[in-house]
Amino acid sequence: MNKLTCPSCGSHKVEDRRSFVAPRKTADRDKPPEEQAAYVAAGFPGVGAKTLDIIRGETDSLYEFIHKAANFTNAISLTEKKQQKIAEVLLANWRKKVE
User: Fold this and answer.
1) pLDDT per residue rounded down to tens, the chain (99 residues)
2) 13, 35, 84, 99: which has the fewest Cβ within 10 Å?
3) Is 97 helix (H, G, I), strand (E, B) or coil?
4) DSSP string covering 12-78
5) Is the dihedral of CA 35, 50, 64, 96 positive or negative?
6) C-alpha closest to that of 66 among 88, 84, 38, 90
7) Is residue 83 helix, strand or coil?
8) Phi, psi at residue 8, to the nearest 5°?
């Protein structure tokens, strides 16, 4: 298989295989925990500023949001499609074989 190099970040991927998307900027360590938690929640697909406001208005913590989303609890006023996408991310098997 051929290896390709990303022109912007220099990472390698094997042709015909999916690779991880380049990570976004990390949360600022100097921010308070509630802002760091909001940053994490905003990283889910379909979660922009408006959706984040809904989530923060209906849950008390990132943990509560993740728990409800992973268990398909309809306690959060999100569309079924958004809930499904978030749950897919939360429940995706991301284990890598350690060599």
Assistant:
1) 455 565 556 665 545 555 555 566 777 888 999 999 999 999 999 899 999 999 999 999 999 999 988 887 666 788 888 888 988 998 899 888 887
2) 99
3) coil
4) EEETTS--PPPPPPPPPTTS-HHHHHHHHHHTSTT--HHHHHHHHHH-SSHHHHHHHHHTT-TTS--
5) negative
6) 90
7) helix
8) -85, -40
